Amino acid sequence: MKIIFLLFLVLSVAFGVQNKAYECTKVFESRKNELLLELQNIDEQKQSLDALKRATEELLKKKESLVQGKGTAVDQKLAEIKTREASAKKMLEENKKVLEEMKQLKSDKVSQTFAKMKPGAASGILSQMETSEVAEIMSTLNSKVVGQILGKMDPKKASEVTAALRTIPSAEEKKK
């Protein structure tokens, strides 16, 4: 009986070890399946992240090219504006020169008119005008004509005109 008992014990231990080994294998298999699922989830997430990264990089490149395109357009507009500004300044300078020439011609014509008049008639007209205007007109006349006109003018008005003539630069000073 001892032998049977021993045999029974050996068989139950062997069967128990085999049963335990089977249970361990089951646990390892289930854990292996769980790890495989986790690995698969991680792989899917990695692929999603890579796809998102590529899409983001493409979008960033598109936006950078768009910004560069707009930057180039802005630079072109700025260059165009500077060109127009330079053109406008040039025209303004030309217009100022033309205006100055026209004023000079008008002034010369007025001066010639007063130079051709008799001193008495010129002094009568000039006496009725503002002192500054009279001084401007008389500054363009030759000094002999100015002396004759001032001689025929009212002494008070003549002294005002003379004082105003001192403040007006001569034609030579204006050219400088």
Give a short overview.
The protein has helices at 2-116, 119-127, 131-139, 143-152, 155-167, 171-175. Helix 2 crosses helix 4 and helix 3 (131-139) packs across helix 5. The chain is rod-shaped, with a radius of gyration of 55 Å.
Distance between the amino and carboxyl termini: 145 Å
DSSP strand (E) fraction? under 5%
Work out the oligomeric state of the chains in this entry. single chain
Number of E strands: 0
Number of domains: 2
Task: Outline the structure in words.
The protein is mainly alpha-helical. The protein has two domains: 18-96; 117-171, no CATH class. The protein is built from six helices and no strands. α3 crosses α5 (155-167).
Describe the SSE topology.
Layout lengths: L1 H115 L2 H9 L3 H9 L3 H10 L2 H13 L3 H5 L1
Helix pairs in contact: 2-4, 3-5
Give the key terms.
176 residues, 2 domains, mainly alpha, 6 helices
